[in-house]
């Protein structure tokens, strides 16, 4: 989205200072938490960030929307993939400690074969 705001500023011939780049980075970092939950919310954020650094967006809105729908889908895909990887890693790391804790509470050693036999008897 920072690239999108920079592109819009360049098409209008507006130069962005280093302080404005830091402001864009800070605002996008803070707003990135809210972007995940709302589809196509990045368009609103790009317009808001452009307004903060005094870059008009009136006639470039169609250009933004033509590109942002694809970028929004790619962001969604990356978010879902990272969530799936995070869940898999946490499951892998905590599975053994969870079974160890259950074994301590029950006093029995965990045996995967017993669980398979119990599942087979239910089915």
Automatic annotation (TrEMBL):
Q: Write down the membrane topology.
A: Multi-pass membrane protein
Q: Where is the composition biased (Acidic residues)?
A: 105-123
- Show the Gene3D superfamilies listed in the entry: Sodium:dicarboxylate symporter (1.10.3860.10)
Transport as a keyword of this entry, yes or no, is yes
The cross-references to InterPro entries, in alphabetical order and at most eight, read: DAACS, Na-dicarboxylate_symporter, Na:dicarbo_symporter_sf
Cellular compartment(s): Membrane
Pfam families per UniProt: SDF (PF00375)
Q: Name one GO molecular function term.
A: neutral L-amino acid transmembrane transporter activity
Entry annotated with the keyword Iron-sulfur: no
Q: Which GO terms describe its cellular component?
A: plasma membrane
Q: Membrane spanning segments where?
A: 12-37, 43-67
Q: Which UniProt keywords apply?
A: Membrane, Symport, Transmembrane, Transmembrane helix, Transport
Q: Matching SUPFAM superfamilies, A to Z?
A: Proton glutamate symport protein (SSF118215)
Q: In terms of domain of life, where is this protein from?
A: Eukaryota
> Which residues does the annotated region (Disordered) include?
99-123
Q: Describe the family membership recorded for this protein in Swiss-Prot or TrEMBL.
A: Belongs to the dicarboxylate/amino acid:cation symporter (DAACS) (TC 2.A.23) family.
Q: What is this protein called?
A: Amino acid transporter
Taxonomy-wise, where does this protein's organism fall, top ranks first? Eukaryota, Metazoa, Spiralia, Lophotrochozoa, Annelida
């Amino acid at each position: 989205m920072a690239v999108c705001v920079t592109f819009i500023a360049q098409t209008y011939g507006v130069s962005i200072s280093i302080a404005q780049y830091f402001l864009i980075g800070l605002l996008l970092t803070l707003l990135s938490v809210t972007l995940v939950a709302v589809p196509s919310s990045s368009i609103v954020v790009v317009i808001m960030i452009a307004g903060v650094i005094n870059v008009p967006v009136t006639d470039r809105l169609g250009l933004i929307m033509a590109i942002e729908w694809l970028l929004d889908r790619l962001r969604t895909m990356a978010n879902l993939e990272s969530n799936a990887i995070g869940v898999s890693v946490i499951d892998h790391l905590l599975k053994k400690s969870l079974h160890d804790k259950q074994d301590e509470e029950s006093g029995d050693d965990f045996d995967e074969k017993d669980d398979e036999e119990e599942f087979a008897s239910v089915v």
